[in-house]
Structure formats: C-alpha cells, structure tokens
Write a structure and sequence with these properties.
CATH topology of the largest domain: Rossmann fold
Largest sheet: 7 strands, parallel
Structural class: alpha/beta
CATH class of the largest domain: Alpha Beta
CATH superfamily of the largest domain: NAD(P)-binding Rossmann-like Domain
Helix content: 25-40%
Number of domains: 2
Strand order of the largest sheet: 8-7-6-9-10-11-12
Shape: globular
Oligomer: single chain
CATH architecture of the largest domain: 3-Layer(aba) Sandwich
Length: 321
Amino acid sequence: MTTNVLLLLAMPEKVRMQYYSGIMAKGPDIKLDVFDHFSKMDPYLASADVLITFGPHLGEGADHVFANARKLKWVQALGTGVDNIADRPGLGNDVLITNIHGIHGAPVSEAAFMSMLALSRSFPRVVRNQDSHAWERWPPTLLSGKTVGIFGVGAIAEALAARCKAFGMKVIGISSIKREVAGFDQMRGRDELLEVVRELDYFLLLTPYTTQTHNIVNAEVLSLMKPTSFLLNLARGGVVDEEALQKALNAGQIAGAALDVFSQEPLPEDSPFWSMKNVIVTPHVGGLHDGYVYDALPVIVKNLNCFLAGDTKNMINIVAR
C-alpha cells in the first residue's frame, strides 16, 4: 500500500529539491509530492498520509489543509515550533506530530549576534550612508559589560548564553521553570518579567508561542524597558504585541528592535516596520543556514522508516499534545 507524503516548503526550488532528493535517496519507498504553496495541494489532500512542513509555511491555509486531509496520520514539522500545526482545531487529535530539535543552537546564536552587533553599532545607518556616499562617524556601544535577558531557556538559549559570556555580557534567563543552567548568571521566573526587563540592555525572545505567551511582550513590558535597550525577536511574532511595539519605538521608549518573526508572514508591504530606521527586519531566517537540510534529514528519514514500520514509539522528537 502506497504511503502518500506531501512536502510543503515556501522556499526556493533548490531547497525543495534538496529535501526531495535526500528523502528519496535515504528513505523508504514512498510517493512524495512537493509544493511551494498550500493552495497547490488541494488535489492531493484527501489521500495524504504524511505532511512535512514548517508551520508558518501553511499560513492562513492551515485550517483548510487539515480539514481536507482526513487520512492524515502524521505531521513532521521542520522547525522546533509547532504553532500553526498543533494549535489548529482542524487537526485530528490522533494525528502524530514530530519536530526538529537540537540543531538550531549555532544558527540562532549567530543570528542573535548579528542583530545585537548591528543594533549596537547602528549598522543599518552605515549601509544607508554608504548608499548616499556619506562619511559620518559616531561612537558605537559595546556588547561587553551589557546585560542580555533571554526569554525562553532551552537548548538554543544554552548555546547562545555561552557565546554571550565570551563577549563579556551578563546573561539572565527568564523561564517558566527556574533552574540552574550553564552560562547564565541568573535565572528568573516568567512571573518576574516586569521586574527583570528594567535591568536589560538586550531583551532576546526565544520562547515558544503558546496561549500563555501570546502578546506577553506588551505595552506594559515595553514601557518598563530602558530607553537605550533593544528588543530582539527570534521566537514567534505572536509573542509580541506589534502595535504596542510600534508605538514604543516611535515614542523612543526603547532604542530599537531586530525582528525575524511576525504575526503575519510574509510581512505585509504596508507594515510600518519596513520603514522604521530603528528596526532591522529579517524574513524568518534566524534558524536557517546552508546546511539546515542535511541537519534535518536524519530526523525525517528515521521517523519515516519508523512510521512505515508501524513503530511510532521509536520515532524521535514526538511533540506532546
């Protein structure tokens, strides 16, 4: 009996083909169809057994996809987050969900440092000056001696904390569960958020998006941050009240922000964030790099082999529902 697998990736064809070739070369005998947009999957949904995708790539089509994929038995998320998958009401309770875990420490850490250094040295201003041939000098601020708060302490945060310490930064973790973690100077509870943000020079978001973290970075939180501080969102757009953030940035309540994720993706062309000179916009690429496919493939192939053998207990990175 044929197992029908759908691969949805809103990415360049080269990347889609890397996944396709890697799965077909190392995986079992399956029927694998590849798509760049959810709307193209309609003729295949009724017979689909497996869906492989990033949750955000389903976009506004998630409910439509799950409502029509009635035979679906398993979703392999290609990122750590399973928002727009596990939280969709149309996804049957018996559908298994797995994710990719443990490969994001290096890329997200480097994305965080790119953003912190760019903000501290006003690098967007440098690029604008280069475009206009303007020679302008100013004293940048240093990361050394600054305090970074990492909201959401998991494997990625542990990798990042060590790198922050190497730059001479004080590192504070903010988590729902307080525990000692290597590389952190302090661990604070989520219930202490309003107190701890007052201390931060960089407030970096890595927390998963859930009903508990929806818009948790709101107007009150932003109002308590230093006017010289920066917000960096490498988590999910829904963690931040974006309207409140726009107001805080315009009012000078905080110095700037680096945003890799948004409540609506792609970021609409009329979003104010595009034209804000104290904001760096990146297109949800914090966890990606040119070797991501090859880091993710072993998980996908192992899980496919287990799934086809009926051995779901030995699939890895199963997400509790």
